Amino acid sequence: MNNALEELSREQLIQLIELYSKNWLAMDGVWFQSVERKLGMDEAMFHDAEAWRSFTVIEAKRLKQFLGLPEKAGLEGLKKALSLRFYANINSDECIINGNTLIYRSIECRVQTARKRKGMELHPCREVGIVEYSGFAKVIDDRITCRCLSCYPQITDESCCCAWEFTLNENMV
After folding, report:
1. Crossing angle of helices 41-67/126-140, nearest 10°?
2. What stretches of the chain show up as alpha helix (H) in DSSP?
C-alpha cells in the first residue's frame, strides 16, 4: 500500500482517481498515435483492437471481483461495472435498462474531443468498440450480447458520441 494515499482526504482521493484515469487515457492515446503516425490508421486500429481484446477482460474481471458480482450478474451487474470503468471517471455517459436490454451512451468522449482539438481525423472506434464492449459484457455475464447502435464512423445518433445495446439472453445456459 502506498502510505501517501492514507494521508489524502476523500476529496483528494477522488481527484487522484480522475487524474489517474486521465493519465491512463493519455497513455492509450500516445501509443496509438505513435503507431498511427509511423504505420497508418489501419495498423494502429489492428493493435488497438488487440490491446482492447485483452485489457477489457482484465478490467471486467477486476471490477466484477471488486463489486462482488455473481457469475451471472445480469444487466444490473453490467450497469454497476460500466459505471466504474476508467472511462466513467472522465467521460460523460448514461445507462438505461429497459426489460432485457441496457443502452449505454457515451455523451462526451475525451478521445474524440482531443482529436478534434488537435485537428485530427476522428478515431474510427466502432470496430474496436465492438471488441471492447462485447468482451467486457461477456465477462460480467456470458449471456449478454452487444451491438453497436451508433459509433464513428457510422453515426446514427448525433446526440451522443457512441451508443451500445446490451441484450440479456436469459434462455442461454
Report:
1. 20
2. 3-6, 10-39, 41-67, 74-82, 110-117, 126-140
CB 70 within 8 A of CB 142: no
* Per-residue pLDDT band at 126 (split at 50, 70, 90): very high
Measured CA to CA, the distance from residue 153 to residue 125 in angstroms comes to 7
Cell numbers representing residue 124 in the block:
474510427
Rounded to 5°, the CA angle 60-10-83 comes to 25
Q: Across residues 131-140, what is the average pLDDT?
A: 98
Q: How confident is the model at residue 173 (pLDDT cuts 50, 70, 90)?
A: low
Mean pLDDT of 54-72: 97
Per-residue cell: 79: 450497469
Q: How far is CA 83 from CA 45, 50, 69, in A?
A: 25, 23, 14
Q: What is the amino acid identity at position 73?
A: A
- Of 103, 106, 109, 83, nearest to 25 by C-alpha is 109
pTM: 0.91
- Exposed/middle/buried for residue 85 (C-beta within 10 Å: 0-12, 13-18, 19+): middle
